[in-house]
Amino acid sequence: xxxxxxxxxxxxxxxxxxxxxxxxxxxxxxxxxxxxxxxxxxxxxxxxxxxxxxxxxxxxxxxxxxxxxxxxxxxxxxxxxxxxxxxxxxxxxxxxxxxxxxxxxxxxxxxxxxxxxxxxxxxxxxxxxxxxxxxxxxxxxxxxxxxxxxxxxxxxxxxxxxxxxxxxxxxxxxxxxx
Length: 178
Description:
The chain is an alpha+beta fold and 178 residues long. The protein has six helices and four strands, in the order βββαβααααα.
């Protein structure tokens, strides 16, 4: 069984943060529009069991009807949330050159004729946030080389309130430097 095609699958402007999304059901988008940005999640295909191998019981417990396991990407969702808060505060903790670039990329249609796509802008913001804000001069090298690095949110909070997610946020391994 497949999902019905959507009349207009595009809900958001490519230049602005997404503020609506389609609900995803067992067979794909349902057509129901939900407010807010969809959380990042992975759809992990599960190979069918080989003939005569296994009972297939786990399949009924872990998977929906598409034969895929859906897994929330907690790290991506946490980073997105922190970058969103940092953007709202107008990029504290960056170098003057980065600030100039960020403000240029964020220019509105009445200021910039060739606006940057939001996905490109968010990727650049995230790279700068990870490299300059979380890895800023306030962090000692040994804090980033330990096997269990400290939570960047605890070291340099963007706001004084907890994140909207109920899990810890740890620095991604790719920001370790030799």
